[in-house]
Specification:
Layout: E1 4-14, E2 23-37, E3 43-48, H1 61-73, E4 81-87, H2 97-112, H3 119-130, H4 134-141, E5 144-150, E6 153-159, E7 166-172, H5 178-183, H6 191-210, H7 216-219, H8 226-229, H9 236-245, E8 250-253, E9 260-264, H10 268-280, E10 286-291, E11 299-302
Parallel strand pairs: 3-4
Antiparallel strand pairs: 1-2, 1-11, 2-4, 2-5, 5-6, 7-9, 7-10, 8-9
Helix pairs in contact: 1-2, 2-3, 2-4, 3-4, 9-10
Length: 308
């Protein structure tokens, strides 16, 4: 058994408008998780972006994921371990940070146990812990991932994205928990609304698969969750209108929000400036990031072997 393993996991933006809990896109923004057997006290060490918002205790979801691997593999858990998280993803902002921590714990523990679980197994376990597969599937595999849950198994297809496609992320200073964003959603939806989202989601997948990015403006429209969640984000409509006027192809909530993602082929700097100005008119500071899709997904390696 190796004594130290590290995983680098990309952030994700999910739903992409109509693909609620189904579609996810990996982003070129990363957290790094290192698990080391120390023989000393168990500890969780968090550094980097928003470290103060992330628990540094064995109750952390990443460490719970580590324990899950040892429990399910039947390998006795070492007495002393250190889980170090170098966080590069704004926390509780709809960018899949919790999923990256869970994957980091699973992948590094799996590596230290000599990989008893396949990547497909890892995805099933991560989805079970996270409660939905869209963000962990994208972060694990990279690209745009379509996820379908069948019982306890997650089935996926990965699509590569045109490298010309950029995302301009307007990341507000305030946070919004996924649970709060789910609690605001209705228990039932109209049949016509279900058809609306099925048609847009299908068109979105086809648009990415065929490179017909001119269809994104139509295909990323949604009536199932964004009309409700947008009420939790002051200035949402103005930010969307500003990004559209500046040349964005389409604009969606990133995950549960409050981050707003504009999909662009050009004018990224102008789009970002206009989104930031719209938020500031509501006295909400925000950070702008311009990113591409991550095509590779998570990587994991041990420190006494070649990188995998």
């Amino acid at each position: 058994m190796s004594c130290k393993a590290t995983a680098r996991i990309p952030a994700s933006t999910t739903n992409l408008g109509p693909g609620f809990d189904v579609l996810g896109l990996a982003l070129q923004l990363y957290s790094t998780v290192t698990l080391e057997i120390t023989g000393e006290d168990t500890e969780v060490v968090v550094s980097g972006v928003d470290f103060e918002k992330i628990p540094s205790t064995p109750e952390h979801s990443g460490f719970k994921a580590v324990e899950t691997i040892f429990q399910r593999s039947g390998i006795p858990r070492p007495k002393g371990m250190r889980l170090r998280i170098e966080n590069g993803i704004p926390a509780i902002r709809g960018l899949g940070g919790s999923g990256t921590a869970i994957l980091g714990g699973l992948l590094t523990a799996n590596e230290l146990c000599d990989t008893p679980f396949s990547l497909s197994d890892i995805l099933d376990i991560a989805s079970e812990i996270e409660g939905h597969p869209d963000n962990v599937a994208a972060s694990l595999y990279g690209g745009m991932v379509i996820s379908v849950q069948d019982g306890k198994r997650i089935h996926t297809i990965k699509l590569d994205c045109d490298p010309a496609l950029h995302l301009v992320l307007a990341i507000p200073e305030f946070t919004l928990s996924t649970q709060a964003a789910r609690d605001i959603l209705p228990d039932t939806v109209k049949f016509s609304d279900a058809i609306y989202n099925i048609s847009r989601c299908s068109l979105l997948v086809a648009s990415i698969a065929t490179g017909q990015l001119d269809m994104l403006a139509l295909s990323m429209k949604d009536v199932l969750h964004q009309p409700y969640r947008s009420n939790l984000i002051p200035g949402f409509d103005e930010v969307v209108e500003a990004a559209s006027a500046a040349g964005a192809l389409s604009i969606t909530l990133s995950g549960a929000g409050p981050t707003i993602a504009a999909f662009c082929l050009n004018n990224m700097e102008i789009v970002g400036k206009q989104m930031k100005a719209a938020f500031m008119r509501h006295n909400i500071p925000c950070e702008i990031k311009v990113l591409r899709a991550d095509p590779e997904g998570a990587r994991v390696w041990t420190h006494d072997k070649e990188n995998r």
